[in-house]
Amino acid sequence: MRMMKEEIEEQTREEELLSFPQTQQQSKLVVVGYALTSKKTKSFLQPKLEGLARNKGILFVAIDQNRPLSDQGPFDIVLHKLTGKEWRQILEEYRQTHPEVTVLDPPYAIQHLHNRQSMLQCVADMNLSNSYGKVDVPRQLVIERDASSIPDVVLKAGLTLPLVAKPLVADGSAKSHELSLAYDQYSLKKLEPPLVLQEFVNHGGVLFKVYIVGEAIKVVRRFSLPDVTKQDLSRSAGVFRFPRVSCAAASADDADLDPCVAELPPRPLLERLAKELRRQLGLRLFNLDIIREHGTRDQFYVIDINYFPGYGKMPEYEHIFTDFLLSLTQSRYKKKSC
């Protein structure tokens, strides 16, 4: 039965190869093996992307997780977003035995973004400031356990209310994207560790999602949590829970916004930030959630970093991503010929 399944898969792949124009069959076809969740496959591998990829000589092939990875392929690139210790080990071993294959991205580098304590540390260590603006992270505190002690720990750390509470683990699940806003000291006891507490920074209710694909950068606006005034703090109490805040339905690109709020972060600042993060994180596929402190023009804060985000929501992602995949293989061939 298993043998029959493998034969069917091989036949299907041969048919896909034959469907490519003859000129592309003669030239080097770029084969991209992908290991994604069904949800990620649906949102990322949209028909428009696959059609454009086919025209550019790129073939996407699903990786069978029930078969040894080394028995599949051959691949030029492996694209993945799966969690679990077993998968990380499989991929690390594959990287060692198949150095000719580009793995996007190394499992050990991705792990760095699964913890919100370490996620923003590289940004904090940068102290990125130049004539285009300053980039920082909100003051934050990690609570591993014992919710009853949170008010005292917060008071001792000198954090200012309100505080944004986020799950410590950022594994891409819906729960890891949920957040809460705590308005008073007493309500902090209602939170559920392990979590990260961040000082809330007023930002005009708009955040900037900065998508990074290799060296390409694309920025979109998203609606975010509204500003909190002193009156709000005096009148409000409790913990307010929010689902994922920055979603496709919350696009603010076409909204009638105050220009001071809507103005995108300066391009040179984003380019420098992206370059530094690519180098420090060792990643090529990620995005940043950035806010501008309300009332300022050049004070920005990175509040989240995500690996292999929802590129399907990024304008022109099909062209950007296929160009990126081709550039990877072209640079590798250049290195071989040198």
TrEMBL record:
This is Inositol-tetrakisphosphate 1-kinase 3. It comes from the Eukaryota.
